[in-house]
Fold these 2 entries.
Entry 1:
Amino acid sequence: MRIDILTLFPDVFGGFFAHSIVGRAVAKGVVDIRLHNVRTFTHDKHHVVDDYPYGGGAGMVLKPEPVFEAVEFVKQDAVLPSVHTVLLSPQGRLLNQSVVRELSGYEQLVLICGHYEGIDERVAMYLANDEVSIGDYVLSGGEVAAMVVVDCVVRLLPGVVGSEVSLVEESYNDGFLEYPQYTRPAVYRGLEVPSILLSGDHKQVARWRRQQSLMRTAKRRSDLMAKAVLSDEDKKLLSDALQNQVTEGI
Ligand SMILES: C[S@@+](CC[C@H](N)C(=O)[O-])C[C@H]1O[C@@H](n2cnc3c(N)ncnc32)[C@H](O)[C@@H]1O
């Protein structure tokens, strides 16, 4: 996959793409991430990228010309057939794991980071194919949002995360939150790891984990639970948990 990020502040991405899972994916050549400074697509002496909003009001608006030209530039040398241009915006569709899966299916993503009061609306209307928000709050720029998108998309690319099983079992993959995780030591400051996890009984461990996952989701995320499709076994696990007042780790 290739990801082109259009930003006024390429330096803020700093070491983010050099470390951890994204860094490994870059090093392995699974993803090619390119940063482009939108300011270099201006033609005036002072490289002006913003202007006052038509109709008045506070703040400045990112001009359309450098953004259109930057997108045209990154598409020009792209040999990849599926290019998806995403404007990071608090007004976009909310990023969730299903949107992440969808984005990870493209061969090239172009991420446009806004700043100031936002970007001239013609970018959203005629240039971007998609608008994505990372949450119902307003950031001062799209850079952090772009990092979020890159991180969660890249870890889904084949060969990036060590074990594909960890992707299958994690939160949101099947509509539920993941079960709680523990590691050594078995007792820390008197706090014990649930004994079932030390039993070596794989079937019981799987049953416990599923039950925890269901209980957690029911307790913490009623919105996910309302959409969830529960098997008969899931319903039984939930009702058993409620009867036995299973609260550990929830
Ligand atoms: C200060 S915000 C502009 C907010 C705009 N005036 C509004 O009310 O919708 C500047 C830029 O930050 C980015 N941004 C802010 N919040 C975001 C969010 N929740 N998700 C994705 N990008 C966001 C966008 O690229 C946006 O153009």
Entry 2:
Amino acid sequence: MSRTLVAATRRVLGSRRRGDRAAASPPAGAGDAALVADLVEAIGSDRVRADTASRYLASRDASIYREGNAGPVCYPGSTSDVVACVQVAARHGRAVSPRGAGTGLAGGAAPLGQPVVLAMTRMDKLLGVDLDNGVAWVQPGMVNLDLSRALAPHGVHYAPDPSSQAACTIGGNVANNSGGPHCLAYGVTSAHVVAVEVVLSDGSVVTLGDLTAEPAGYDLRGAFVGSEGMCGIATAVAVRLTRNPPAVRTMLLCFDDVSDAAATVSAIIAAGIVPAAIEMMDQRCVTAVEDFAQAGYPKDAAAVLLVEVDGPAGGVAIASEKVAGIARRNQAISVRTAADEDERARLWKGRKSAFGAVANVMPDYYLHDTVVPRTRLVEVLERIYEIVDRYDLIVLNVFHAGDGNLHPILAYDSRVPGTDERVHAAGREIIEMSLDMGGALTGEHGIGVEKREHMNRMFSAVDLDQQSRLRASFDPHCRMNPGKVLPSAHSCSDIGALRAADAAGVWG
Ligand SMILES: Cc1cc2nc3c(=O)[nH]c(=O)nc-3n(C[C@H](O)[C@H](O)[C@H](O)COP(=O)(O)OP(=O)(O)OC[C@H]3O[C@@H](n4cnc5c(N)ncnc54)[C@H](O)[C@@H]3O)c2cc1C
């Protein structure tokens, strides 16, 4: 970290606005009065909530999981607030669950037991931009899209762009190693995080990684990215800046057969072209999106591909010509290039509002996230349709086709008796089938609670023990977001931490 940035970081992180200590404490949850009083003493009453509504809101994320309840909810404003909260929680023998915007889809931020929740959304500042090193320091509660907007005057942006980027935070992105449409060419979050300041479970503060090109020692930064809140709490993140490309071309390729669209994806990559993004939607998804966002997608296409190429203007022109030719050779029924920035934005708005559009189809949805070899996309899609038909459900498919990252959306109405069971059973089959095809459990949403018990299917007992040991080296008492990711047989100390909450009479 440059000295200026260190100073800027310390200034912002250190400037805590304390609440009025004399103000009345918020009402305590059962068994939590002493804990709440200590948290208020540590960070101020305006930063601690223990009322039922606040705890309820912090007890879920965007997944369908709710197994525990939030204990007191803290809104730290600085690293020292986070340290204080972690130390108070440790004194009371309580676990800590960090959360960002709560857009996670695997239950990562849905607390188990009744931990102290640290909602990081008030730590949302851009701490400094270092164009010389191509790095910016940000607080973890900064919203992903706000970061790129703040960087725009410098001609740079933050490349990972989850479809939830208007809401999700950089801290949540780091914890889940999130991806997004443009991660095909640019890489997922781990490729864009240079260093992280972390508060460990004993309250000590470490900086993992640094700004040098070849950092010495073990890559603990790499181990932290994707650790789903279980290795500590990120309080500042140094992100890599990506220059805005001089030219961009966005194309909508439409097909009347899904297999032609899938063959086009493989052919583009085989031709040595790595577009910035290749996204695919099937007909049901296109219809829902078009009705919702009027993005200009043809509802009669069996599948559409949204392909974006970027870089120097000459290269973009050549690559987009090649993509169009490949699509036509694979029976594309139309090839359209966005004429201007407005049309490009409209095409992307369609893709990025795909999940919201499901609300017009059914009141509930369960979004899956597995990865399969790109070459098996057609086979996998056929299997998904077959599974979903068998369970009498509706599926909309939208996915990062370029890297084989599937997102089948099971749309349903949970008020219909028995539907939840069918949705879960179909979801399990989709996960199993993806693994059978040589795929992976998750492309970007993480393991959380959702896929914890599938970890045994993907990793050996030795692998899982090693993962558990790595986690314990950051958090020996397993107090950070316990019970997530590692399946029960490999997370005994997590279960110990949850039982301690139970014994203290605070189990949710
Ligand atoms: C409509 C929609 C579209 C989505 N599209 C994408 C997509 O394209 N790509 C993608 O990857 N994901 C996507 N997601 C999933 C989700 O947005 C991402 O996982 C995102 O990174 C979560 O960020 P968050 O701030 O909401 O974190 P939360 O959901 O609040 O938390 C996620 C995890 O991060 C941990 N955490 C949060 N802050 C910290 C911190 N400061 N330190 C340590 N741990 C922390 C939590 O404990 C939890 O385990 C989508 C979700 C929705 C609802």
